[in-house]
Amino acid sequence: MAPVCLASLLSLRVLFVFALCLLTLVTNVNLLLIYDRQTLLNLRPPFRNPFQNPLQLKFPGQESRCPPLFSSIPAHLYRAPLPRWRRRRRGRRSGLLVKLKAVRCTDPVAPCLVSLVGVDVELRGRRPTLPYLRKRGRGLHNLRQLPRALPMKGTPIPARMALVNARSLANKTFILKDFFVTHRLDFLYVTETWISGDDSSAFTELLPPDCSYLSAPRSSGRGGGVATVYRTSYNCKQVTLTKTYSSFEASVFKLDPALSMFCAVIYRPPKYNKDFIDDFAVFLAGIMPKYDRILIVGDFNIHVCCPDKAPARDFLNLINSFNLVQLVSAPTQEQGHTLDLILTHGLTTFDLEICDALFSDHMPVLFNVQLPCHTVKFPAPFLCSRTINSHTAAQFSAAFNSTIILPEHQSCNSDVENMSSCLYSTCQTVLDSVAPLKTRLSRLRSEPWLDETTRAVRRECRRAERKWKKDRLQVSFQLLRGSWRSYQKTMKAAKTKHFSDIIASNQHNPRVLFKTINSVLNVPQPVSLENSTEVCEMFMTFFIDKIKNIRTLISPPSFSHSVSTSCSTVLHRFEHVSLSYLEKLISQMKPSGSPNDPVPPRLFKEVFPTLAPYVLDLINGSLIHGSVPSCFKHAVVTPLIKKPGLDSSILSNFRPISKLPFLSKVLEKIVYCQLTTFLEENSILEVFQSGFKPRHSTESALLRVSNDIFLATDAGHHVVLVLLDLAAAFDTVDHQILLSRLESWVGLRGSALEWFRSYLNERSFCVRLGRAESRRATFTCGVPQGSVLGPLLFSLYLLPLGSILRKHGISFHLYADDSQIYIPLKQEEAYSAHQLLECLDDIKTWMSCNFLHLNQEKTEVLLFGPSDVSKAHVDLGVLNDHLKQTATSLGVKLDSNLTFNAHINLVVKSSFFHLRQLAKVKPLLSRHDFEILIHAFISTRLDYCNALYVGLSQKLLARLQLVQNAAARLLTGTRKQEHITPILASLHWLPVRLRIDFKILLFVFKCLHGLAPKYLSDLIQVYNPPRSLRSTNQTQLVVSKTRRKLRGDRAFSVFGPKIWNELPLYLRQINSLSIFKSALKTYFFTLAFN
């Protein structure tokens, strides 16, 4: 014990000595520092210079130095203060404070509290807090736009991708679309789409803006199918496999050929297939030598989580032998298996994440892939637009009334050009003050069926998702799944209501119905055109050169082949119009105009009461003085792709769409009405021209041509029908020849002729794409496209053609630029076609003189005989090379035997295609709306030119009846085994045979009451007995005698009067068209279903 006690005593002594020495050392240190008020204030730097160097603080009477006590401390021992805590405003994920977090700073502090460890250099204090960060609101005057740096070429850009097992894509379209947008994906790989072969309607709902898709539906059976949704900024090209594999399904594509990257989406059915390993090995062997970067994703249905099992072991050995890396290691299925795999080669992937299984029993897999960038993503383009609301019209009128643009009561005598420019400039100035042109970024429009209800359901999904992520309870997970199912149903219902409203409001507008259904069934394919001045110049040069090349092909003859005539009546001037007439005309016109209009057409119609006096003076001044303002003669041309899917890099795949000013269309409409009245009163128009004329149609034209052919063949003659084709006929019209035609053939003189001279002179156009525009070019030929007068002027341009054909005794019929020339070849004349050949030579000569190019390659010839069996040998000379068995004329496929077999096959084929398409949208529509679509898509095809089906065999008509029966079953949902007659009766649909008789009788009624073309009315004669009989007042018609049942009996002039005389007397005595149609349908309905 003695040594221990001795050690304790020594320790106490040592501690005592150490304390004594310490007290000795600190006796001269003042532990309390005392500062007066002024010294404490001097510790703070001046406020006016917050960025002054904190080490350069000045105290009264001293040089720049640190406060006392810290002056001897080296700089590398300074400690930086912790940032001040600031209260965070909750409730905003992307508020201004969060976005400007990097620039948030505190007040400057004393230099002794700021340091850079290990560096003895001059230091800067932190910037003071910006004023708009210390209070609510934003100081917009302190903000400036920073240029965004675009990624450099070759810079790696990660692509966000996801792999999803959908298990019926059509039932999860809106859910997957929200998943794509929320996770900001670039690629979405979907397995088990369950999409059939030609069904793309689901993708119209799924695709986000600026996205496209690749789909590989399952070839047979149910289920399966893979698809890829990707952003269009990536150049993806689908690859067709040289070999098909029975053990798995694949959709393969190349991502940017310059990258040499191959992508494949695989789905292997869960059922065991012994050939899968061999097939997949062959698949890999075909792609591995060709590509440096490979990405293979899909649902392989192989438990790679159990590598001891034979299928998994063989599969892993296979991918290892090909140097593929399998990235998924966690379970991807609810039962804990890893079935969805990602295989890569030569690619860098990161941020792999497995989400919750919300769509099916498989979990989505998200990952990033580093891709070398070979294209630069440009920011969204800017758009210039005006904000026009319900108050704009009143504001425009008030501002316009306060502006004096023309002297009172002197506008009609002033120059029309000055009047138009003054009116345009004033309207432009007023509109700029009321609705100024603003530049904004183009934003993708949301779906039109989104409303507050759908947004509320979507917010509920977000709320359920946050709750599930917070507590991870099974009940929260079930609520989340239920909310997503409710979201899908709500979106479907909203979309259904949207399209039902469109169909109900446009049930008599087939163009809108076709466009609507096409948008539902087919994914719009974007046309990649750069909106630049260079592209506009290219299109303008192409459109001009096209017309120049056609006119170059026209070789003028050595002599002039002109047809002269004299006019008995003359039109010297156009009459001025009244204000009431102008108001009625403008109210009936469609609000379509040019982008250069000073006032948009819809707004113009609203403010027209204010502009009416000035517009009336301008219109009447133009009519009286025979002058058209230059601003009315400028067209804006927009290229439009001819057919979706065509290559947009080929300029010939586009057609020009011309847009003229709205006021120019008003002026043309007034001139058109006055000129048409003059032409009809003096019978100047060609009788056998059915194009662009009221009460004329393609069916009426074909009905007259077929009637003449049937009667000629019934008489034992052969008939030659020649179908002529003109190349760009409207664009090659010569202006001087047209003016000469108006003067000599129509009879225009004085100011009326001068008006057309001014109308055609110095016309110009430019090509516009977005905000880019080409230079102006002048029209040297052609009638203005998109104008009101264009079709009428072309018909007048062709007036001498009828005289040439009549001189040679050739029958003809014209529909715009489509010409049908036919002549009977008689046996007593040895079936000579010499007369026809001479007429064609004269036609070619006349067309060359008038700058019309006859496209001989598209000229078709049909030869009809008196019977289907025997035909005489006819020498047609140069026309033998153009002789066909079938040819298409005005949408009807004619055949040399007049059986219409080819045309009916085409109608049946087209009808069943549209029935399959309509079946896909049936769940979206009510029965009433769906019946409207059936009539628009199917009934119109069955009824088009069905007046030509008279006398066809029951076998051919039965094909058309099958189409109607299928449409009725699809509409009513009845099974195939049920009898069709009660179904048609419940729908009040007449059978096909009676629909043909209905159309014929309708033409007969119109002929009798002056509602049909003259060339059809001349074929119908009312029976007038030579003496007083009981049939005198029974409105019976003359029935011509024929010799052949399959020829003469099918002519309209024979079959029409025959079935008309069989009608009850009360039907024949009806004078109203609407009453006759209703009564006739009731009569036929009784015959069909009584």
Can you tell me about this structure?
With 1090 residues, the protein is of the alpha+beta class. Among the domains are: 158-370, 4-Layer Sandwich (Deoxyribonuclease I, Chain A), CATH 3.60.10.10; 452-506; 539-574 and 626-895, Alpha-Beta Plaits; 911-1089, no CATH class. Helices cover 40% and strands 13% of the residues. It contains 32 helices and 27 strands. The chain has a six-stranded mixed beta sheet with strand order 3-4-2-1-12-11, with no helix packed on it. Strands 5-6-7-8-10-9 form a six-stranded mixed beta sheet, with no helix packed on it. The chain starts with a helix and ends with a helix.
Helicity level: 25-40%
- What is the number of E strands? 27
Give the name of the CATH architecture of the domain at 539-574 and 626-895.
2-Layer Sandwich
Question: In terms of per-residue confidence, which ranges show pLDDT below 50 for 5 or more consecutive residues?
Answer: 1-8, 25-31, 46-73, 75-85, 98-135, 408-413
User: What kind of sheet is the major sheet?
Assistant: 6 strands, mixed
Strand order of the largest sheet: 3-4-2-1-12-11
As for the CATH topology of the domain at 539-574 and 626-895, it is: Alpha-Beta Plaits
